[in-house]
Design brief:
Blueprint (H helix, E strand, L loop, with lengths): L18 H7 L8 H5 L2 E9 L2 E6 H11 L3 E8 L3 E3 L2 E12 L4 E12 L5 E10 L2
Parallel strand pairs: 1-7
Antiparallel strand pairs: 1-2, 3-5, 4-5, 5-6, 6-7
């Protein structure tokens, strides 16, 4: 998962991504509130991952993220490129997750984000494969 800090038309470099937000909130030992999620997500939005579609709101997504992050010690990303136009952005990237059991998962992903008029994520669509 990757979090965005500004409208796609203003995000042209990886430095504009809030990767530190993920590092802080998507680990097993950190607190995560609905207000934390509301910093970047619309009150209701759509998540599509590897062909599965999930309508979500802040409560539902917090429940999902709590399960997702329950085994994560460290999560990191290498954004290879940002292609942004109007209220959409596409990000090819590599991700690495260090788990509490000592294992490491690596992924390659393509992420499409759409933003509402308040620059909050209204669509999170990703396709990813595990590489190790």
């Amino acid at each position: 998962m990757l979090w965005w800090s500004a409208a796609p038309e203003n995000c042209c470099t990886p430095n504009n991504l809030t990767v530190p937000w993920n590092r802080l909130h998507l680990t097993h030992d950190c607190d995560l509130s609905e207000s934390d999620i509301a910093e970047v997500f619309a009150p209701s939005f759509l998540v599509k991952a590897n062909g599965r579609t999930h309508p979500a709101d802040l409560r539902v997504y917090r429940e999902f993220l709590n399960g997702f992050r329950s085994t994560i010690c460290v999560i990191d990303y290498e954004v290879e490129e940002i292609i942004a136009e109007r209220r959409r952005a596409v990000l090819p990237m590599k991700a690495q997750i260090a788990r509490v059991n000592g294992s490491i998962d690596r992924f390659e992903a393509m992420l499409l984000l759409e933003f509402d008029s308040r620059n909050l994520v209204s669509l999170w669509q990703e396709v990813y494969i595990q590489t190790s």
